[in-house]
Description:
Helix content: 40-55%
Number of helices: 18
Largest sheet: 6 strands, parallel
Distance between the termini: 21 Å
Structural class: alpha/beta
Number of strands: 13
Radius of gyration: 22 Å
Amino acid sequence: MVPLPAHWVVGNLTEEEREFWLQPSGENYRPCLDFAIAYRRESARVTKEKRRFLVVVVSGGLNRVRNQIVDAVVIARILEAALVVPVLQVDHVWGDESGFSDIFDVEHFIRTLQADVRVISSLPSTHLVSRQTVATQLPHHVHPLWIRARFLKQLKQEGLLVLKVLDSKLSKSLPPDLQKLRCKAAFHALRFAAPIWELGNRLARRMWIEGPYVALHMRLEKDVWIRTGCLTGLGSQYDAIIRRDRDLQSKFLTRSFNMSHIQRRLAGLCPLNALEMARLLKALGAPKAARIYIAGGEPFGGALALKPLVEEFPNAATKETLAREGELVPYVNRSSVLAAIDYIVSLSSDVFVPSYGGNMARVMQGHRAYVGHGKFIKPNKRLMLPFFEEAAVSDAEFSSMMKKLHLNLHGQPELRTNDRARDVVAYPVPECMCKH
Length: 436
C-alpha cells in the first residue's frame, strides 16, 4: 500500500509552523528484503508442501488481527506447513463478523507469499475429518526452536495443526530471514480488499487536496477507558459510568491492578484526551488552521469528548464527515473495515500522532518508515504529563519543554535493538531496510 506523497509546505507560516510540517530525513534507508541463498533454496521445498496444514484462528481489532496474521505466516514457514487463509473469530468487544476476504485481498495475499509459504484459501477435504492438535495456550516470546520441538512431530503425524490465541506470542527477535518475512507479510501481502482501499483513498485525497494534514489516532472509546483503568476527563457523571462498567468487567482491566487512576495517568498508561492532545499539538507548533483527521472509533461522550480539540483546531474531520452520502453505509457495523479506512487515511497524512501506544500506533510507526519515513510523533506521556499539571508554566516554557521531549521522536530511522519488546514491524531498520 503506497501513500499519497508528502506536501511541499508553502504559504505565510511562522518558522515554528514550518518546522512542525518538516519531514524527517530518511538517511537513505529503503526497503531491502534480500533473503539469504539458504532461505531461497528451502523455499523450493516449503512452497510445495501438500501434506501438512496450519489453521490459525485470530481475533480482536484490525491491527491486532494484522499482527496475528503476520505471526501465522512466519509460524507456517517455521513448521514448513501450508497456511490456510486465517479464520477471523467474532470478537466479544467489537462484534464484527467480517471474514478475511471482507477486509483483505486474498488473491494478493496468496500471490505475494508464494515464494515463501504455500497459502491456500481453504482446507482440503482430505483433512477436514483428520486428527488435529488444537493449541490455545502458547507462552510469550516463543522462538522457532520451541515451535518446531512442540508441534512438528505431531503435525507430521496428524497433518493438521490449529492455533488459537496467537496474540503476540511469537518472539520479536528472530533470524534475519524470518524478520524479512514478517515485513513482507505486513507491508506487502496484507493489502486491503479493493472496495476498502478505493474508499479509503478517496477520503485520503479529500484531506490531501486541501494541503498538509495531521492524522490523530484518538483512543477514546468506552472499552478503552474500562480496560486502562483511566478517567475520561469529561466529568464525574461520565467517570461514574466507566467505574460502574469496570466493576462489572474487571477481568478486562489491563496491567497494574494496584495503581490508582492518577498513578496510571502519570505512568503514561492512559490515552491522551482531546484537551491534552490539543495542548501538545499547539506546543509543537501545529498551526491553528491545520487540517486534522481524527481516526478511531466512536468516542465515549460523543462530540463532547472531542470538543477541546475541535475548538483549538476547527479544521478537523473524521471519516463520517469526509464521506459522502451512502459511502459508509455498507460498513456501519463493520468496525474492522472502518478501522481499515482510518488506517489508509492515516498512512497518507503528513504527520501522524497516536494518543495511545497500541497496535495501531506500532504498525503505523513501522509502515510510515517503510514507505518513506513519514513524520511520526510518539507522545512521551510519562515525561510530559507532569508539565500539564503546572499552572505556573508559561505557554512559551511549555512549548519549549514539549519540543525538547519530542526532539528525537519525529520519524527518523530508529534501529530495532535486541529489546525483545521491539517488533520489526514497528522498527523495520535494519532487518528490512538498508541504506542506498
